[in-house]
């Protein structure tokens, strides 16, 4: 008998029981089986793994193999054809897209899977509530490209009284997506002050700001704790945008970004069953609940419906 | 010249400063160990849950964590872990001490550990199970019983998935095997059946301020009522917590669960490293001490080797990245794994390269220890063996090396202790934040040298700096740090003991 | 009788094995020594051929947007194509040396004090226990020390800055005061508290002094003009206080290098031929005078090499600096400001740098600098130590 091969004794007993119970079972048409490969961002690693777990609950025969070595690894693997799914925490650059098109003759499909935002944080006892973009730039950058006239180095310049008074800056290190996004959106592409404490992780930024009353920093929304307070952004009209899920979802909070999943799919082609099941899960309510539980922000309903419709319209493989 | 029996006239403050520095060094060491022990072990103790009634606003349930002074005033405030992320959108709460109107510890408060949304703290109202409803006092026993059933179901499902389904899927992928398909369908049907059995029951929960929550029971991992537990029960729960920490994988982006894969990865890497470093280190030691002609050149080489022990570990990491990963790994990929390029197989960090890098890093330790051992062997032992007609090799293998084994072992243990604690080079050559696949499994060739692996030291760094919620992760970081320190202390104590033992034995031998 | 054929076979086996050992040994030695050569090989393309970097770009201030004066900047990656990149490595090298300096300032007095105390005053049995204990201290992994320094100690110092600075003064005073108080004690108590065991019984006393200092520190701080230490430091001394500063790094890394310095210094001190000290003592010198005038000069080179080896360790330590320093590439010597070291920069940036690019090679250059520095320092220490050993042997021979 082949069944017990390579299986422990306990497994064999179990299998025997199952055969007695389900003697006539066959592989049903909707049974999805296979290994699913994904190569890409480490920001998205937790999210992808949780989706993989949920998928394995729905389809016990499916396994997700994730290689999370950074967003830059996704286009390379997609172009090479070693994977069909490439999670990325930034959109693909023109050069990466061109390389893919040059190899395959068509672009990869870009799917938005979640939204994420950076919050500007201060110590929980800091009375400051809002900051304008110009102030933010004057605090964090030495280039002041957003148009501030003078650098802001003291809390008293913002009308806040704190012990120590000098503003202490905390942020992320070079070579992190957070560092680049903040530089692009908050500093108008300028450069950071040298005094910025460059921590190697967002959790470290939050811990540092939570411990220091005169500190200000920036970190991913999913890292915030009760020790820090997220500031709202004040625009020219004096309206303040808080990093609430709604503002992040529609982009009215400008320090937000989309998280992507790139799919290698020829025009008119079909997706293998495991990949398809994975995408179905991602855009299902259960999949979006995972997004929320991981601390990211779910997609806008319209965007979600649009991508669901796209998925439903794909011809099924047979 | 020591010790002195008579007390001399005043020597001024200096001797006391010298003594103070010993005291200070020892206090710092003890303080660090104490900090790790308290922070790490305290986490598993089922802490009492308080029901806090603030002067203003609704009451809440929470576990006190620590107190701090409010900035710019003399008031103090306390941090509570309140859980209930799904209800509040927040798991922590700071409250000034003077804003607390009342503190209670009602015995019926439950803590639920859930797979999503983290812990729940509050009241258990009812357990609804397929039409039956256990409410009031009956709810808790029913919950305990159902959780035990769930655990066995979960174990069976996990076992089926890992031991039955996974191999079948691999067989299916390698070639259409009709028998495998049928088996798989049966296994899957059983898993679905188990999953259906797990579903169904729902808990009706209520937070302290009266908000209701329907919680599917399948998402609940454990439940306890800390305020109603007796100290022995708490001790038992503490023991189970420690065991789970050691035996389970991490959950929730490393901020919960255990460190088993990291322990496994560390041990695998260190084992591989020992396999590489021992023969080479011993060979080099024998060469330098027994074979090479002693002269300025060997002295120079010896100084070089000794100094390499002082070269920063990160430099070895850079070397490993340049030579092993990009150099040798890149070539291996080009020759043998060309079909999967540009996705690297060996051309990226992995277990093999990490082990080799650390082997290089610890080589001087083994060489130096071997040399010291060889130098301790009395010259007349060698002369005796040679005089009896042994060749040099026979003299070495039969007489000298057996006497040096403890020294080599000491060197190896010290090397292992050093390697287990090194993190910086690993960041460059193959450690991973989360490796869902351990480097050893039932799949050919069983030991996957190219895979990334988890490591206790890196786990500390990653959880403390990259985790989602640093406040929640701190106790786990403490516990992991304590574990790592304990492992290294035990290794070092073994080495110290061996060396001591060795000295004692050779003391006798050389006097004889 | 041995069979000549068997003898020949044994000889052959012997020669083969010797060959194997020689090959293995030479191979290991060569490959280990090849590290430096390899690093240099990777760095050379930076300075040769097209697009070569001028050394001035690395070590001298360059024009930077937003400043009239040229500045040192480390900005190796452009955000978008065409962005200015700056390869100023001077702040990183500076930070490395600064971290090592503050670590040594903390570690050397403690380690030497401990070495002197244990070589001169401690009973032999206690010394035999102390040495392995301090060895255990050295074995503590950097990542654990870094975690404690960065996430526990730094926030604590941030909240208790005045107390922490006061400890630097009160702890040594406390130790001296203990000596003075002991002289006032009745004889039977004094006998219990022998100087030989002072390393142990001083610990609770110092703990008491420390707690007292921390308890009183807020009151002391309130007595300053302005009632705020930070404001006072800034107004009076122009010092800027960062929470992740060189003091924290120095403390944490000092903790890590104390045992290494202690072990070598203790070896050097107890290796001084007893005849030297006995002569001085016989002439009526106190133990401390003997130490200061006779033993220390004799052991000086050994102590120097101990400090050198400590410096080598401090310069290369990665995880402690990475986790405790804040990684700010500043060029200041202030203990209350942050720093960024070469090793931490390598650890953070190398995994993300494009292979073969300028950034990648610059990080290799950083590794080469670390390698060269530690190798030189260690060689120096080793040479000095060898000389010293020879001198002791001579002294002992002549005595």
From TrEMBL, chain A:
This is Phosphate transport system substrate-binding protein. The keyword Oxidoreductase does not apply. PANTHER family: PERIPLASMIC PHOSPHATE BINDING COMPONENT OF PHOSPHATE ABC TRANSPORTER, PHOSPHATE-BINDING PROTEIN PSTS. Pfam families: PBP_like_2. The keyword Transmembrane does not apply. The lineage of its organism: Bacteria, Pseudomonadati, Pseudomonadota, Gammaproteobacteria, Oceanospirillales. Keywords: Signal. Gene3D superfamilies: Periplasmic binding protein-like II. Residues 1-29 form the signal peptide. It comes from Halomonas shengliensis. Residues 31-284 form the PBP domain. It comes from the Bacteria. InterPro entries: PBP_domain, Phosphate_ABC_transporter.
From TrEMBL, chain B:
It is found in: Cell inner membrane; Cell membrane. GO terms for cellular component: plasma membrane. Residues 263-495 form the ABC transmembrane type-1 domain. Gene3D superfamilies: MetI-like. GO terms for biological process: phosphate ion transmembrane transport. Its main location: membrane. The chain crosses the membrane at residues 21-45, 259-288, 308-330, 350-369, 399-420, 476-498. It is a multi-pass membrane protein. GO terms for molecular function: phosphate transmembrane transporter activity. The keyword Transmembrane applies. SUPFAM superfamilies: MetI-like (SSF161098). It comes from the Bacteria. Keywords: Cell membrane, Coiled coil, Membrane, Transmembrane, Transmembrane helix, Transport. Residues 143-204 form a coiled coil. Belongs to the binding-protein-dependent transport system permease family. CysTW subfamily. This is Phosphate transport system permease protein PstA.
TrEMBL record, chain C:
GO terms for biological process: transmembrane transport. The keyword Cytoplasm does not apply. CDD domains: TM_PBP2. Residues 93-381 form the ABC transmembrane type-1 domain. Keywords: Membrane, Transmembrane, Transmembrane helix, Transport. It comes from the Bacteria. Gene3D superfamilies: MetI-like. One of its GO terms (cellular component) is plasma membrane. It is a multi-pass membrane protein. InterPro entries: MetI-like (IPR000515), MetI-like_sf (IPR035906). The chain crosses the membrane at residues 16-41, 99-122, 134-157, 163-185, 197-217, 246-265, 294-315, 362-384. The keyword RNA-binding does not apply. It is found in: Cell membrane. Belongs to the binding-protein-dependent transport system permease family. PANTHER family: PHOSPHATE TRANSPORT SYSTEM PERMEASE, PHOSPHATE TRANSPORT SYSTEM PERMEASE PROTEIN. This is Phosphate transport system permease protein. It comes from Halomonas shengliensis.
């Amino acid at each position: 008998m082949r069944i017990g091969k390579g299986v422990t004794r306990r497994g064999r007993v179990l299998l025997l029981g199952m055969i007695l119970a389900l003697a006539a079972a066959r592989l049903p048409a909707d049974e999805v089986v296979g290994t699913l490969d994904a190569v890409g961002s480490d920001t998205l690693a937790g999210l992808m793994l949780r989706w993989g777990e949920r998928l394995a609950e729905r389809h016990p025969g499916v396994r997700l193999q994730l290689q999370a070595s950074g967003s830059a690894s996704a286009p390379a693997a997609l172009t090479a054809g070693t994977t069909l799914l490439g999670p990325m925490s930034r959109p693909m650059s023109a050069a990466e897209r061109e390389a893919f098109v040059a190899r395959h003759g068509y672009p990869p499909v870009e799917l938005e899977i979640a939204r994420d935002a950076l919050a500007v944080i201060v110590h929980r006892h800091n009375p400051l509530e809002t900051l304008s973009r110009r102030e933010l730039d004057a605090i964090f950058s030495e280039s002041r490209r957003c148009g501030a006239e003078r650098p802001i180095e003291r809390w008293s310049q913002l009308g806040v009284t704190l012990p120590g008074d000098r503003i202490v800056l905390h942020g992320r290190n070079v070579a992190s997506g957070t560092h680049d996004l903040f530089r692009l959106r908050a500093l108008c592409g300028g450069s950071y002050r040298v005094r910025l404490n460059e921590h190697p992780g967002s959790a470290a930024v939050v811990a540092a700001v939570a411990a220091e009353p005169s500190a200000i920093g920036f970190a991913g929304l999913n890292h915030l704790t009760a020790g820090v307070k997220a500031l709202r952004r004040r625009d020219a009209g004096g309206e303040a945008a808080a990093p609430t899920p709604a503002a992040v979802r529609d982009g009215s909070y400008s320090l937000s970004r989309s998280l992507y999943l790139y799919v290698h799919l020829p025009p008119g082609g079909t997706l293998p069953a495991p990949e398809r099941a994975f995408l179905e899960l991602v855009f299902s309510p259960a999949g979006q609940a995972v997004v929320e539980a991981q601390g990211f922000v779910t997609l806008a309903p319209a965007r979600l419906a649009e991508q669901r419709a796209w998925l439903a319209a794909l011809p099924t493989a047979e | 010249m020591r010790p002195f029996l008579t007390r001399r006239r005043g020597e001024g403050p200096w001797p006391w400063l010298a003594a103070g520095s010993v005291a200070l060094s020892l206090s710092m060491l003890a303080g660090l160990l104490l900090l790790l022990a308290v922070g790490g072990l305290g986490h598993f103790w089922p802490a009492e849950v308080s029901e806090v009634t603030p002067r203003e606003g609704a009451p809440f349930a929470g576990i006190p964590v620590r107190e701090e002074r409010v900035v710019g005033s003399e008031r103090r405030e306390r941090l509570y872990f309140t859980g209930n992320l799904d209800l509040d959108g927040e798991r922590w709460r700071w409250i000034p001490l003077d804003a607390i109107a009342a503190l209670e510890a009602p015995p019926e408060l439950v803590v639920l550990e859930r797979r999503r949304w983290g812990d729940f703290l509050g009241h258990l109202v009812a357990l609804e199970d397929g039409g039956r409803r256990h409410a009031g006092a009956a709810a808790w026993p029913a919950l305990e019983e159902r959780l035990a059933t769930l655990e066995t179901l979960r174990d069976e499902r996990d076992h089926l998935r890992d031991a039955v389904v996974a191999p079948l899927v691999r067989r299916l992928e390698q070639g259409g095997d009709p028998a495998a398909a049928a088996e798989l369908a049966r296994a899957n049907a059983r898993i679905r059946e188990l999953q259906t059995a797990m579903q169904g029951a729902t808990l009706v929960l209520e937070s302290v301020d009266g908000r209701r929550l329907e919680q599917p029971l399948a998402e609940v991992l454990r439940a306890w009522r800390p305020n109603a537990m007796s100290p022995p029960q708490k001790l038992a729960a503490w023991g189970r917590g420690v065991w789970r920490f050691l035996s389970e994988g991490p959950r929730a982006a490393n901020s919960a669960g255990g460190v088993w894969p990291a322990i496994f990865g560390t041990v695998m890497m260190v084992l591989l490293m020992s396999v590489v470093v021992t023969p080479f280190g011993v060979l080099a030691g024998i060469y330098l001490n027994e074979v090479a002609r002693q002269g300025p050149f060997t002295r120079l080489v010896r100084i070089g080797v000794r100094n390499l022990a002082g070269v920063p570990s990160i430099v070895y990491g850079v070397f490993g990245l340049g030579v092993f990963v990009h150099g040798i790994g890149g070539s291996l990929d080009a020759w043998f794994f060309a079909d999967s390029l540009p996705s690297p197989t060996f051309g990226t960090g992995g277990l093999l390269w990490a082990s080799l890098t650390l082997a290089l890093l610890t080589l001087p330790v083994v060489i130096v220890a071997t040399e010291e051992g060889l130098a301790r062997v009395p010259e007349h032992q060698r002369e005796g063996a040679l005089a009896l007609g042994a060749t040099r090799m026979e003299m070495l293998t039969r007489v000298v090396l057996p006497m040096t084994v403890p020294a080599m072992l000491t060197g190896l243990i010290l090397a292992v202790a050093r390697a287990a604690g090194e993190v910086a080079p690993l960041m460059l050559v193959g450690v991973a934040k989360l490796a869902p696949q351990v480097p050893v499994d039932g799949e050919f060739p069983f030991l996957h040298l190219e895979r990334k692996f988890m490591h206790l030291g890196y786990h500390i760094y990653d959880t403390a700096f990259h985790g989602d919620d640093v406040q929640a992760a701190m106790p786990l970081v403490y516990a992991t740090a304590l574990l790592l320190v304990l492992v290294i202390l035990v290794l070092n104590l073994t080495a110290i003991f061996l060396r001591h033992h060795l000295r004692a034995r050779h003391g006798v031998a050389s006097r004889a | 009788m041995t069979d000549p054929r068997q003898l020949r076979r044994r000889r052959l086996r012997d020669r083969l094995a010797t060959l194997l050992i020689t090959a293995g040994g030479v191979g290991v030695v060569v490959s280990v020594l090849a590290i430096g050569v390899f690093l240099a090989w990777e760095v050379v393309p930076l300075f040769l051929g097209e697009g070569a970097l001028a050394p001035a770009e690395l070590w001298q201030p360059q024009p930077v947007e937003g400043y009239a004066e040229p500045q040192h900047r480390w900005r190796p990656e452009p955000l978008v194509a065409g962005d200015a990149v700056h390869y100023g490595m001077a702040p990183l090298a500076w930070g490395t040396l600064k971290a090592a300096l503050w670590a040594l300032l903390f570690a050397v007095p403690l380690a030497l004090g401990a070495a002197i105390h244990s070589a001169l005053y401690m009973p032999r049995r206690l010394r035999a226990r102390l040495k392995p204990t301090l060895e255990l201290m050295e074995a503590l992994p950097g990542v654990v020390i870094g975690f404690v320094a960065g996430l526990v100690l730094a926030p604590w110092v941030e909240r208790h800055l005045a107390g922490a600075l006061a400890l630097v003064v009160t702890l040594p005073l406390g130790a001296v005061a203990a000596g003075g108080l002991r002289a006032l004690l009745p004889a039977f108590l004094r006998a219990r508290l022998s100087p030989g065991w002072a390393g142990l019984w001083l610990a609770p006393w110092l703990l008491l002094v420390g707690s007292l200092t921390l308890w009183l520190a807020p009151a002391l701080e309130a007595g300053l003009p302005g009632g705020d230490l930070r404001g006072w430091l800034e107004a009076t001394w122009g010092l800027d206080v960062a929470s992740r500063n060189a003091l924290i790094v120095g403390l944490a890394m000092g903790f890590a290098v104390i045992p290494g310095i202690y072990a070598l210094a203790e070896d050097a001190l107890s290796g001084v031929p007893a005849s030297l000290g006995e002569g001085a003592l016989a002439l009526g010198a106190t133990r401390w005078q003997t130490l200061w005038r006779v033993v220390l000069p004799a052991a000086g080179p050994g102590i120097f090499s101990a400090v050198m080896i400590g410096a080598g360790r401090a310069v290369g330590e990665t995880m402690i600096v990475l986790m405790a320093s804040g990684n700010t590439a500043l060029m200041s010597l202030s203990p209350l400001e942050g720093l960024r070291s070469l090793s931490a920069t390598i650890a953070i940036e190398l995994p993300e740098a494009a292979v073969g690019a300028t950034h990648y090679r610059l990080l290799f250059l950083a590794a080469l600098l670390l390698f060269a520095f530690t190798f030189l320092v260690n060689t120096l220490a080793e040479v000095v130590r060898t000389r010293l050993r020879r001198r002791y042997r001579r002294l002992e021979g002549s005595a």
